[in-house]
């Protein structure tokens, strides 16, 4: 039986909806991740490596899936392209492999946990937790941006632990190195899991977000100062 094109498109749309990739990054593609926007040679070089890693990750996804290997994009600088590149990978995995993907900001996950804790004291009741534990590809955006309490660390550990044991692919963005995760998660079990589950990719220490904002302002200044 052949599945008609429109039905296929619908199921792709549904998958993309389910992935909850933020509006800003829905159109992001690895191909249009620009290297020349970065100003320094080092920035351009790191961006080029990151882009290549992203493309090779997608091309070799079956092998990565087999090994349960994800990626860890990090830079101290905000706006360097970490979320964009992870979303580009997520978009590509949905399109190319019809993968089940879920994007979640780490702070949203924490808030959700807090709510379900204060609600009925049973975090397992949260569908979100089950979803993030078992989804084929999980993107955790901005892991460890805020200081977390012990119980949150426990839950994060249990999510990662489950995914590690099930060999599921997790893509993480963070503003710290994997080693530095120990400072935020002092029981030390987050870092060791992330280390096993991901391949680290150092992003440029340059903010493309500010650069784009400056360029936009330069363009409108001609109108506003007229
Ligand atoms: N290499 C790039 N090419 C094009 N746009 C980029 C690039 N890197 C970042 N951007 C844009 O800059 C903004 C900040 O990027 P983002 O990925 O959110 O940064 P981070 O997650 O590192 O804080 C976004 O609007 C993103 O689309
Ligand atoms: Mg980000």
UniProtKB/TrEMBL annotation:
The record's annotation in InterPro entries points to: IstB_ATP-bd (IPR002611), P-loop_NTPase (IPR027417)
BP GO annotations: DNA replication
- One Gene Ontology term of the molecular function aspect: ATP binding
Outline the extent of the IstB-like ATP-binding domain: 78-187
What single Pfam family name could you report for this chain, choosing any that match?
IstB_IS21
Q: What protein does this entry describe? A: DNA replication protein DnaC
Per the UniProt record, the source organism is: Melghiribacillus thermohalophilus
């Amino acid at each position: 039986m052949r599945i008609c094109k429109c039905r296929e498109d619908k199921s792709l749309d549904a998958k993309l909806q389910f992935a909850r990739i933020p509006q800003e990054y829905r159109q992001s593609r690895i191909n249009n991740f620009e290297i020349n926007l970065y100003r320094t040679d080092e920035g351009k070089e790191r961006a080029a490596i990151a882009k290549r890693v992203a493309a090779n990750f997608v091309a070799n996804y079956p092998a990565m899936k087999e090994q349960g290997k994800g990626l860890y994009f990090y830079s101290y600088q905000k706006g360097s392209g970490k979320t964009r590149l992870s979303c580009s990978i997520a978009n590509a995995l949905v399109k190319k492999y019809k993968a089940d993907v879920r994007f979640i900001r780490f702070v949203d996950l924490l808030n959700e946990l807090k709510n379900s804790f204060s609600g009925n004291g049973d975090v397992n009741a949260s569908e979100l937790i089950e979803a993030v534990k078992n989804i084929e590809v999980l993107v955790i955006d901005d892991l460890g941006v805020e200081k977390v309490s012990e119980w949150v660390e426990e839950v994060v550990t249990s999510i990662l632990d489950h995914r590690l044991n099930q060999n599921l692919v997790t893509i993480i963005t963070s503003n710290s190195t994997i080693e530095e995760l120990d400072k935020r998660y002092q029981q030390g079990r987050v870092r060791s899991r992330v280390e096993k589950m991901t391949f680290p990719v150092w992003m440029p220490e340059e903010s493309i977000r500010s650069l784009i904002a400056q360029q936009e302002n330069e363009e409108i200044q001609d109108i506003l100062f007229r």
